[in-house]
Amino acid sequence: MKVHELYSPDGARKKRKRVGRGIAAGQGKTAGRGTKGQASRSGGTKGPYFEGGQLPLVRRLPFRRGFTNIFKVQYVPVNLYRLHSFPAHAEVSPETLAAAGILKSSSLPVAILGHGEIDRPLIVKAHRVSESARAKIEKAGGSVEELPWQVKRGRRG
Fold it and tell me: What is the span of the domain harbouring residue 135?
């Protein structure tokens, strides 16, 4: 068998419909487009984006999408059950948490949350401490100190 002897089986390739070629062809005169109107003209219908001159939906959406608060402070959460690796009376600060591998970096603000239990007194220093975490730490004989946090902003030129 040679390349020029290959052929498609019957029904695999459909013949193209040639519209607008006279009455006898069955698709003459208006060529299946109906009469008059935008869809009957060449260049015909507009895309899904076009809404008759009205501002399209995709261009209206950004106005409804809200905004990004540039002053928002993103805290790194640390739950109480993560503090079991610290010995009694140890100081738990962002630096010691980073050294223990609990945080990736000590540069971000830390929030201590109350999920889990604590069985030893710890000196916890964090930028934010939840009420339940504070109660559990103090019940175990530890103390809580909230660190100040300042948002570092660059100057816009």
Answer: 76-146
- DSSP-assigned states of every residue in 13-79: SPPPP--SS-GGGSS-TTTTS-SSSGGGSTT-S--TT--TTSPPHHHHGGGGS----TT---PEEEE
What does the pLDDT profile of the chain (157 residues) look like in tens digits?
A: 899 999 999 999 999 999 999 988 888 899 989 899 888 888 888 888 888 889 988 888 776 677 788 888 899 999 999 999 999 999 999 999 999 999 998 888 999 999 999 999 999 999 999 999 999 999 999 999 999 977 555 554 3
Residue 91 lies in a domain: yes
Residue 128 within a domain: yes
- Residue 108 falls within a domain, yes or no? yes
- The model carries a pTM of 0.56
CATH number at residue 105: 3.100.10.10
φ, ψ for residue 138, nearest 5 deg: -70, -30
